[in-house]
Specification:
Blueprint: E1 4-9, H1 17-31, E2 35-40, H2 55-58, H3 67-76, E3 79-87, E4 90-91, H4 93-101, E5 114-121, H5 130-140, E6 147-155, H6 167-177
């Protein structure tokens, strides 16, 4: 059965390496008959969460910016893939801000059950992604029945385009294909 796949690309660089992972994941998902969409955060206006908790009653964020549109897409997706560069052994600030702003999802019925992480780091050691995984698992733990189904580790990439022709792009494609 076809799934609705939302890929949230959080790199501040338009042509960032993690965005390439997102694109390959999307191609894989589409190749197997799924509906897939990438939302790029680099051109979105997303303010920091203010901790006001208005979302607990409204079931949406009180801040009127691009986050509410993305939150609605998240709510209706079967699968969410987060694509992020790793900065100082953790997710990008853009990813963390979007996760914080998605607090309204805690109070609603959501379709998503499967979460994927597509991460790129300048470091070559696989543990460079561990802090990002830990942070994402904290968000996942707040949603009943939701699981981290897979992680792609794009390692040793820093400069834009460094990921081209690396096997990890095929891994992202295959993971998307097999969701």
């Amino acid at each position: 059965m076809a799934k609705k796949v939302l890929i949230i690309a959080t790199s501040p660089r338009k042509n960032g390496n993690s965005n390439r992972l997102a694109q390959e994941f999307e191609k894989g998902a589409l190749s197997n008959g799924n509906e897939a969409e990438i939302v790029y955060l680099y051109d979105k206006k997303i303010a920091f969460c203010k901790g006001c908790m208005v979302c607990s009653g409204l079931h949406k964020c009180a801040i009127n910016d691009d986050a509410n549109t993305i939150i609605e897409k998240m709510k209706n997706a079967d699968v969410i893939a987060w694509a992020t560069p790793v900065y100082y052994y953790n997710m990008s600030g853009q990813m963390k801000t979007m996760i914080d702003r998605s607090n309204a999802l805690y109070y609603t019925e959501n379709k998503f059950k499967d979460i994927y992480l597509l991460a790129c780091a300048a470091e070559n050691h696989p543990s460079a992604i561990d802090g990002t995984i830990t942070g994402l698992k904290g968000w996942i733990a707040c949603h009943s029945g939701v699981e981290l189904k897979g992680v792609i580790r794009g390692l040793g990439v820093y400069e834009v385009g460094a990921i081209e022709n690396m096997p990890v792009l095929k891994e992202a494609y295959e993971m998307g294909k097999n969701i």
